[in-house]
Amino acid sequence: xxxxxxxxxxxMKRVLHLGFPAPxxxxxxxxxxxxxxxGERLALAKPAGxxxxxxxxxxxxxxLVEAIRYLAASGRPExxxxxxxQEGLWAVTDLDPGxxxxxxxxxxxxxxxxxxxxxxxxxxxxxxxFLSPATGEADSCACELPLARHTREPRMVVxxxxxxxxxxxxxxxxxxxxxxxxxxxxxxxxRHQILLHALECGLPVLGDRLYARSPLPLLSRYKRDFHxxxxxxxxxxxxxxxxxxxxxSIDGGLTIPCPSPPRWKGLLNQLRKHSRA
Length: 277
Prior knowledge:
The chain has 277 residues and is an alpha+beta fold. The chain has helices at 9-14, 64-72, 77-81, 109-120, 193-200, 264-274, and strands at 17-20, 30-37, 41-46, 90-91, 101-106, 124-132, 140-143, 147-149, 156-158, 168-176, 179-186, 243-250, 254-257. The chain has a six-stranded antiparallel β-sheet. Strand 8 and strand 9 (156-158) form a beta hairpin. Mean pLDDT is 92; it is low at 1-13.
């Protein structure tokens, strides 16, 4: 379906990260894991707090494709070995800025357009994992409520008149203390879709302050003998909504898994240890 261009696959196996000096993706230098690379496609693990493409909702957040194009124009050797052209990369998939997970990019605009069309036709599958304080009444459920952008605020709303089609299926994975680990799968992930559809199914995402009004998880809420050193502020166990994109699949056999975000495993361990079912 897609044409191929030359790429050094030996370098692909050796170069596991792409470095972004500050302040391109934040106040500190950032290294993004290269999750997949072939003749036309490259997948990176996007961290939370970074946009894939510009969005008027988030005018102050760093933008991944802009940072890539800035560094690609400098002709860095490690980028050239990965076959990244000097004009940069084009985004194929998007991901909420607060969400960690794989982002698929293309080395040529024409290929990116073809892949985006395939995604819109249902050729992709996105698998999320999230934690909810609710257990749910069944082991699986689904939501097909259409979503639209709010006209004045940076959030989505359910709208049967102006909303775009959205489908999410949910499956229970395991109990994590008094919480539940769920998987959510969708053929096309719209902005905030998982957070809003989960809430509509009675599965508010832990730490989702926008829709579920759920506070960030603090150890003091779970650990009975918790003591904070004087003069120090308690830091949350996880910095945002406890949800991330764990996998992207494309018809034809390509699956791109992504390691869990920083502090995810620590959050699970603390909930298992201190939050009682």
